[in-house]
Amino acid sequence: MDAVNDAANHTAEPVPGQPGGNRLYPRVTSFRARRGAVSPARQDAWDRVWPRIGKDVSDEKLDADAWFGRSAPLIIEIGCGTGTATAAMAQAEPQFNLIGIEVYKPGLAQLVQRVEREGIENIRLLRGDAVDVLENMIAPESLTGVRVFFPDPWPKARHHKRRLLQPETFALIATRLIPGGVLHVATDHADYAEWIALYGNAEPQLIGMNEPTGGDPEAYRTKAPIGFERPITKFENKGLRAGSAITEFIWGKIES
Ligand SMILES: C[S@@+](CC[C@H](N)C(=O)[O-])C[C@H]1O[C@@H](n2cnc3c(N)ncnc32)[C@H](O)[C@@H]1O
Predict the structure, then answer these.
(1) 45-253 — its CATH code?
(2) Which residues line ligand 1 (CB under 6 A)?
(3) Residue pLDDT, tens place only, 133-148
(4) Which helix (H) or strand (E) holds 178?
(5) What pTM was estimated for this model as a whole?
(6) How many CB atoms lie within 10 A of CB 165?
């Protein structure tokens, strides 16, 4: 059996919207089904907090202002993992509404527990495939920022089709950004970095705002609607210990 044939893996918990979930789903996905336990304390926090701050991915259009209970610029983070960076950014950026999207429940449960413990008000979470979220739940020109920190690199050539950041994904993300909105990507994988530069820089709706995207960050840093800085993520911490070089990509949605 192909180790990445998610549809055949019946041992992992179904992902909303995926095979074994609640509808037929033919697309190759950027994630593999993973098993992982949620501790009783995290499950308790989940049961208390998820109904208010979390939703399974669906076809329903998202009314973010109603969900957050306030109107504020909206940022999504794709593949937020255990949410180390998500929580830190939400606390540093109380002026933004942040949505973390992740397929892996144990990661989300860790973040849910932290949100409750630290009383973080400006995070909401979606469980499922971020491509579905962008296609079906998010309106065009409604996002001030999109963050993708350390997407799975799928290093083998035969798995490159599973990489999240395909030309189509760049185009989709760009349509969801407001004019001037920012796409921030980081990777520690040299080959994926080349791929991201190639396809991201080829997307006509995006302009480069830092060196790897062919732009001058000083020309944009003060005008951009979100900051270009970010805290270290959990995954990155592992990579830094292993000595990997990290590439940051910042693009802006064209304003014409
Ligand atoms: C390498 S981890 C990085 C996690 C986190 N950003 C960090 O830096 O610690 C990539 C994460 O993306 C998630 N992921 C991959 N494809 C996804 C998709 N299409 N929608 C939502 N999450 C996805 C995976 O489940 C995984 O948790």
Answers:
(1) 3.40.50.150
(2) 30-31, 78-81, 101-104, 107, 129-131, 149-152, 164, 233-236
(3) 999 999 999 999 999 9
(4) strand 177-187
(5) 0.91
(6) 21
